[in-house]
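Supplementary notes for students who missed Thursday's class. We covered one full example, reproduced here. Read the sequence, then the structure, then the short commentary at the end.
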Amino acid sequence: MKTADIDVIIVNFNAGPLLGASVQSAFAAGAGRVIVSDNGSTDGSIEDLANANTNPYLTIIRNGKNLGFAAGCNVGVKSSVAPNLLFLNPDCKVDGAALERLLAALRSDAKVGMVGGYLQNTDGSEQRGGRRRFPTPVDAFKQLFGIRYWLERLGLHHHQDRASTEPLPTGPVSVDAISGACMLIKTEAMEDVGPWDEGYFLHCEDLDLCKRFALAGWKVIFVPNAIVSHVKGASGGATKVFVELHKHRGMLRFYKKFYEHTYPRPMMWLVTIGVWCHFAAVALLSSLGPEIKPRSA
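Structure (token representation):
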């Protein structure tokens, strides 16, 4: 399949040789155009891509600095004229038939606004985050204060925040949220809902977008036979503390944005205190370990 109906947008930040492999897989899967929005990479990945790739349908945008994942995506959107947009991490490779299957699911219903595929680890297992439920302040409260642990020990609770613990469906199904690592969206739906929220720098911006799609009446679909390999954590180069800081900030922004007016204020205060205490503990432990490489930001 070769279609001009899909522009692939890849936000790159020091992804190394994985970037070239990701771009190549997108073209091989049938993408009409690939737009790489580079957030000031310093590892030579963008230069290597430019030197090795002569495809006239590859567009490279040099942002000059790390704008964050959401802002990098929005830069790519502004350069697109296609009716569908595939947001793809630079550490992802699209299976040959994945794009065609995602597009079929996206076109299956006028109200389907966004679809995502089966994110697999290097060993072929399903990666957490490809299909999930919206987390709530209650979930955070239970986890941060140890309540969930005891409920799970008693068999009274399971992980509500991700559907990947459930059996793999046999066909496309509606879910609350999919991962921003691979997200095919109708341009008309994005124009209706609005751009990525640049208030998130790294993490949770995909949850935010899925939530806004749901509130606007657009369906989000998980497509189990659209395979996308994701070398999770291979892109970036920031310290683990930096990643954890933005992850915790992102969750608090998500809770405040969508739940502040529906939950008691004391609970929101407790969740906020709990999140920052959790970050302090994680940061302390992380500072004693090696650097990690988060997904592009």
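Commentary. The longest helix spans residues 265-286. The two ends are 30 Å apart (CA to CA). If anything here is unclear, bring it to office hours.
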